[in-house]
Design a protein that fits this description.
The complex is a heterodimer of chains A (about 150) and B (about 500).
Chain A lengths: L1 H25 L2 E2 L2 E2 L3 H23 L11 H40 L4 H21 L13
Antiparallel strand pairs in A: 1-2
Helix pairs in contact in A: 1-2, 3-4
Chain B lengths: L1 H13 L2 H19 L5 H8 L8 H26 L8 H12 L3 H34 L4 H19 L3 H15 L2 E2 L6 E2 L5 H4 L4 H20 L17 H23 L5 H15 L12 H16 L1 H7 L5 H12 L8 H4 L1 H22 L3 H7 L4 H20 L2 H19 L5 H23 L6 H4 L1 H35 L1
Antiparallel strand pairs in B: 1-2
Helix pairs in contact in B: 1-17, 2-4, 2-17, 3-4, 3-10, 3-15, 4-5, 4-6, 4-13, 4-15, 4-17, 5-6, 5-13, 6-11, 6-13, 6-14, 6-17, 7-8, 7-21, 7-23, 8-21, 10-19, 10-20, 11-12, 11-13, 12-13, 15-21, 19-20
The chains are: A mainly alpha (about 150), B mainly alpha (about 500).
Chain lengths: ~150, ~500
């Protein structure tokens, strides 16, 4: 937790500095005529101050933790993000029907560790759901290789 | 009389079959998300936002509002029966509600939660009905300094009340305001922070941000925990309260109703805080405070009344000032903007059908909810039996379809996944996403008002102290900041003294 808090604090600090730098490039203007970088510069400065206020007590707190082991839960989360990225990557090419099928199969078999008959059953249900949802609300989801259908 | 005429007009809109259907749908979905742990009203409103694009604005807002106040009703069922809060505003209901259930009094606990919610909801709607129009008239006088002071005050309160740590809350507010900076500068028309990425030039879209931070992050957290819903095996009998129960609970219900309404009006306030305060008040005023935590009916009645009237009260700043006070209301604010409706003091004159239609629908929705939550409680218990591994991929699918349909752009799905991962880390590090969403929505109003005020005063920040309303808000804000700094320093000195003493 402490390590995570330190990393978060450093990222916030870096973001604040980056925002200030970019705001200066945008032109700060003057108080009587604030430019497009005026407010972003103020926000960046505020984030730098807040990151310090966040980081200092974290750094002062005693180190208690040992080396964390990657848990099963964390692996599931990484897999979930991977499946989502895969879905977004293939959506345009494969179309929404095949992508939905793959999303459900991968999710249920890899993350939930369900057997294939149940995964196929639920994925088929999802296909029916997304097809009628698409029709009902006239959503233009990409059809991909199934464009002719 | 204007209020009564308006209300009759509102009923003529809310009672059309189409709006009645959307009201029923909203309250039904609201109760469902309230019952299901792991999906709050903010995430659901974000999820269903794209579906409402094809609806007339009044029907869309009637449905989304129904989800919000419906979730307040449904949350108590899960808290009482499973000791798991269905949504955040029902956390305190677990304490005494579940104890009552363990003592075989699940029926009266569910009944007082539903009846208390109905009474509080009705009191809240009547207050909204009669207070909103004069407040809107008053708000017409507001200029940029007042709007800036008000948004700043709201954001500070959101950071102060919604988070366990003030610094974390403020970080979330600043991040939300920063994200809002992406896109075209509102005064000079220059692109900022878009780096040539076309979808970013129009500004970051609200829907992927909200769905990522609430919907996807929630699923990632639950996936990590391998969340399982427990089967409910207990049979619930006697779904009514006795006169004795009512005698014990009536004052708690009334106190909760009024307290919740006023906490709901506060920018940054809302149902969660209202229910927590109500529980603390009930425990303090009770003649038998030792009963609390062991199945006190007042401990269910007060907070349940408070969270319902707070949900209604939080519509006041939205409808009269155009300023959302919490994350769910911020989603409804976004829905109004997407439909081309500007919430604020002119809403009542320019879009009376929305203003009065939504208020009238709340009276109807409140009645529907009483039926949905008392005689049909058995149906919601069955819903709790649906395993989470089935729900999770369906919620994911809804998020993806919803985000894509907003702008027909794959970029938004990537943005949603990105914010989902960011939201996951926020949860792990205990950063509350509510203030970020609120800041993102209020950012544009706030920056425009701030820069216009400085242009008006030729760069003098004293303009915020030279007008009575903005001055009063700024003074309260500065006093709150000073108080917070004082407590922080005092806490630190106390710690140092203890350290020295130990040494």
């Amino acid at each position: 937790m402490r390590k995570g808090q330190v990393i978060a604090g450093v990222i916030l600090l870096a973001l604040g500095i980056f925002f200030c730098h970019q705001a200066i490039q945008l032109n700060l203007g003057q108080a009587s005529r604030p430019g497009p970088g005026f407010v972003p510069f103020g926000l960046g400065s505020l984030l730098i101050l807040l990151s310090f206020l966040y980081l200092v007590p974290v750094l002062r707190s005693p180190k208690r933790e040992g080396k964390p082991q990657p848990s099963d839960g964390l692996i599931r989360t990484v897999l979930a993000v991977g499946i989502l990225c895969f879905f977004s990557g293939v959506l345009s090419r494969l179309g929404y029907l095949l992508s939905t099928l793959l999303l459900f199969l991968l999710w249920l078999m890899l993350i939930e560790r369900k057997k294939w008959p149940m995964a196929v059953g639920l994925a088929s249900l999802a296909l029916v759901f997304v097809y009628f949802f698409n029709l009902l609300f006239s959503i233009q989801l990409p059809r991909g290789i199934l464009r002719g259908l | 009389m204007e209020q009564l005429t308006g209300l009759f007009y509102g009923f003529s809109i809310a009672l059309t079959w189409q709006n009645l259907t959307y009201c029923l749908l909203g309250t039904l979905v609201g109760t469902l998300v309230g019952v299901l742990p792991g999906l709050g009203p903010a995430a659901t409103v974000a999820l269903l936002l794209p579906i409402t694009f094809k609806l007339p604005p009044v029907s869309a807002i009637i449905m989304l509002a129904g989800i919000f106040y419906g979730a307040m009703y449904g949350g108590s069922t899960t808290s009482i029966l499973l000791n798991i809060p269905g949504e955040a505003a029902s956390v305190v209901t677990c304490i005494d509600g579940h104890q009552m259930a363990l003592q075989g009094r699940a029926g009266p606990a569910l009944a007082i939660a539903a009846i208390g919610s109905f009474i509080a909801g009705t009191i809240g709607i009547i207050a909204l009905n009669f207070l909103a129009p004069p407040l809107a008239d008053f708000a017409v006088q507001f200029g940029p300094p007042e709007y800036f002071a008000l948004t700043l005050f709201g954001l500070f309160l959101a950071a102060y009340l919604a988070s366990s740590s003030m610094v974390k809350g403020l970080i979330m507010v600043v991040l939300g305001l920063m994200l809002d900076e992406i896109g075209i500068d509102p005064i000079m028309g220059i692109p900022r922070f878009s780096y040539g990425v076309l979808p970013l030039q129009e500004g970051l879209d609200f829907v992927p941000l909200a769905m990522g931070l609430f919907g996807i992050a929630e699923i990632l957290i639950n996936t990590e925990r391998a969340m399982k819903t427990q089967l409910v095996t207990k049979k619930i009998d006697r779904l009514f309260i006795t006169l004795g129960d009512w005698a014990e609970a009536k004052w708690a219900t009334l106190r909760g109703s009024f307290l919740g309404f006023f906490v709901g009006i506060l920018p940054g306030g809302g149902a969660v805080i209202a229910s927590l305060i109500s529980y603390a008040v009930e425990k303090r005023v009770s003649r038998n405070p030792e009963k609390f935590g062991k199945g006190a009916i007042e401990g269910v009645a007060g907070p349940e009344a408070a969270n319902n009237s707070a949900a209604t009260g939080s519509f006041i700043p939205l409808l009269t000032l155009g300023i959302p006070g919490n994350a769910t209301i911020a989603m409804i604010f976004a829905a109004l903007l997407i439909h081309g409706v500007q919430p604020g003091p002119y809403l009542i004159k320019e879009n009376p059908e929305i203003f009065w239609g939504v208020i009238a629908s709340m009276y109807i929705g409140n009645g529907i909810l009483l039926v949905l939550n008392l005689p049909l409680v058995g149906m919601w218990v069955q819903v709790l039996r649906v395993p989470y591994f089935i729900l999770a991929p369906f919620i994911l699918l809804l998020c993806i379809v919803g985000v894509y349909s907003t702008r027909n752009n794959i970029f938004d799905i990537w943005a949603m996944i990105f914010f989902g991962v960011v939201g996951y880390f926020f949860r792990k590090l205990e950063f509350e996403p509510g203030p970020l969403i609120l800041a993102f929505v209020l950012g544009a109003i706030s920056e425009r008002a701030f820069r216009q005020s400085l242009l008006m005063s030729k760069g003098s920040p004293l303009i915020f102290f030279s007008r009575p309303i903005s001055c009063a808000l700024m003074v309260i804000l500065l006093a709150l900041v000073a108080l917070q700094v004082f407590f922080m320093v005092k806490k630190k000195t106390k710690g140092l003294d203890q350290f020295r003493g130990a040494g």
